[in-house]
Amino acid sequence: MEIINSDPNPLVRFAWTVRDNEYVYMDTWEMTQEEWDALTPEEIEKRQQEQYAKWREHMANPGT
Amino acid sequence: MANRYWVGGTGTWNTTSTTNWSASSGGASGASVPTASDSVFFDQAGTYTVGIPGAITVNCLDFNVSAGTVSFTSSGSGGVNVYGSLNWTVSVNYNSGGSTVNLSFLSTTTGNTINLGTANTYINALTFNGVGGGWTLTGDLKSSTGADNRIATITLTNGSFDASSYNVVCGAFTSSNSNTRTLSMGSGTWTIGGTGTVWNTATTTGLTFNKNTANIVLSNTTTTARTFAGGGLTYNKLTIGGTTGTSTLTFTGSNTFSELASTKTVAHTITFTASTTITVTTWSITGTSGNVVTLNSATAGTQATVAITGGGTVTTPDYLNVKDLSFTPFVTNGTAPYNWYAGANSTNSGNNSGILFAASTVKAYLITSGTSFTTPGDWNNASNNIYLIGGGGGGASGFVSGNNRAGGGGGGGAGYTALTNQTISGAITYAIGAAGTAGTTGVNGGAGGTTSWNSGAATAGGGGGGQATTTPTSTGGTAGTGSTYNGGVGGAGATGTAASTGYGGGGGGGAGGPNGVGAAGGVGFGSTTTSFIAGGGGGGNGGGTAGGSGAAAVGGTGGNNFGGTGGGASNTSGTVGGGSGGLTGTTSTTGGGGIDISNTVGGGGGGGGGAGAVATSTGGLYGAGGGGGGVNTSGSNRAGSAGAQGMIFIIYTPSTGGIVNGASNISVSAVLTSAGSIEYSASSAISCSAVLSAIGTKFFEGVASIFCNATESASATLTFVGSSSISCTAITQITATRTTFADSSISCSAVFTSSGLLENIGYADINCVATATATASYLIGGAASAECFATVIPIGNTTFSAGSTLSGFATLTPNGRIVGDEWSTVSPGSNTWTDVGSGSNTWTEVQSGENTWLRQG
User: Fold this and answer.
1) Is the N-terminal amide bond of B622 cis, ω within 30° of 0?
2) Is the pTM value of this prediction over 0.90?
């Protein structure tokens, strides 16, 4: 018998959306409550902008 | 570090027995049990079984099998920990009788290889778990026989695993942790045959993922649900395989795929987690007749996004059932058409955007912003539809003055105007009706704006704003006016003068649509009990039913759409054009977005009226009225809700272009316009019962022909060569600078005019039973003939070159010089020849030389 335990840390699900003239981008982050609490609003926005910029770059250059 | 060789045939591999271990190949037994530092060799001929008893786990460095037929069995959950490489060069049974044996790779150094050869395995857990370890496949990682889940689960906990160019077949793969690890997918196929969570990289912290060119195939054929928890990584191709199995596959994470494909031949469901984005470069999923593929969001009413990269257009799907999905890119300012086509046989189950529910034989634009639409190059004046919906009116706030209290009136729904086969060119100016603003704190709702097309040539009016006063009165917003159908009026809020009484707002009206006028919003309900205050239901969209009136503790039911569905219950949003249910508490809702225009968009259902609590119920897209706000028992007024904005939806069948080649034919019953040249090559024909016009050159070649029952015009050169012909029963008007008939013929039963040079050369003939007028020079050359039964009026010189003739019963009225060349014949018969040139004409010769001039009258 093998017991497989799930991660006991409660997860925070944070969904965010970016709309522009062409695209709708949706993303959902999952992280522990501890990780979430450590994030400032500025850091969240910075991560969102970086993630969205990375995705737009991929959309403009598929296959890379 | 030592080598240990298995000897003595069948035996037990545990942590104590030395019976079957030798220090040399085929040597004497009794050597110590191998440890993590000792490589093991199974190199003896014969058939035998190695038993690993109970839950015991044994260790070795390299695990080599090079001879014999060896079966490894475990009576429990035991297995082998490999601290080096694995190399099986002969067929191995890593199980027996269906028992399972675990296999763990625990090296902490790189450079290890794995070759299962043609092993027949039942492995419960195959694990990579060595900090700093690295393993590369040198053969397929699979069982040589049996189902795809004979290696049940592969887990990457620590270290780097590289599949290289080999295939991996297992029941599930998981690597969801925060350890430092690398997964290189390689260039082979990963066949995942299990159910449940078949792929799990949900937590990608510490994971370096190389998608390479691997194709992931989910091969299970049962009806059990599966989940692909991709963790937002970028993958190569994923194929939903297994031809059968009516199952659901759920994606979690905002994952990216080079290609997302399905090879299932039965109905199945693909679900995306709400508020995530699935990005694909190539979409290869479609249903077939009787085998519909359902695409939806995991959370009803909350969209997920499906994006196609590189601005590509997805045209291949059909037989889909789509719900709660946003497809992008989706340009709504009139500069680009839809990128996603669901196919003609797909179903729109509501709350979708960016996907056209039609085959890609048409193009469509949804315009919700901007002011100018540039006529596409393939625009088709003969096959287009343009739909306008104005902005929905906003709901009024509740109004309060002491005990004089009124729930706000709901906003009115917008009007609907449908246009067919519009002739347009260049830039078309339009305006999108704005949403009526919500009335706040004792303010009436704003009126929705008017949507207009082509500088106001067509309009769809916005709904009026809801109103209320402290008289007290409450009035729903007026219905917006559409040329085809009007919107629905807003419902009135409840009013009264009793102390400590609150009043519900009225529901918004539904927008008009192709199935009729928008339906009215319902009336609010007042009570001295807070929980009893209720708003009226929003009205259904065009052709639907009115919202119900609020009652004690129950918001009015939202009106249904024309099909009898979609109306929301109390405190519930409407769907597919149905109105929202009236509110009784703090739950905010919205009217349902309509889909009754081309099965894609439409007038929305009205928002429900509010209660005494703070909550909104906006109008549904497009053009629906917002709900009116309420008043609570303490006399606090609540804001109304905004209406929904207007829109323009354009759909047309692209013109096949200006070129008709070969034996092709074009037959239109309306206007045909080409912004460029129209060329008809051999054997092509055009039959037009209305206007046929080309802004550029028209060129008829070979035996091309044109039959027009109305005006035929060309503003540039019109050329007929070869045996092409034109036959008109109406006006043929040529404003071209030069029209040439070379071996061609023209037959007109009405007026034929040319303001430019008209040339009949070669064997071209012109036969007119009405007036033929050339305001410039008229040249009949070669063996051409002009046979006229009416007046021929050349304004310029008329020249008959060698071999040409003019005959008939018409009147030739030359205003210029008539020049007859050799062998030309003018035979006016009984016609009257009128010389109006006042001497300016020069009759070169009469019956002179080789010419024959017959003049009568």
Assistant:
1) yes
2) no
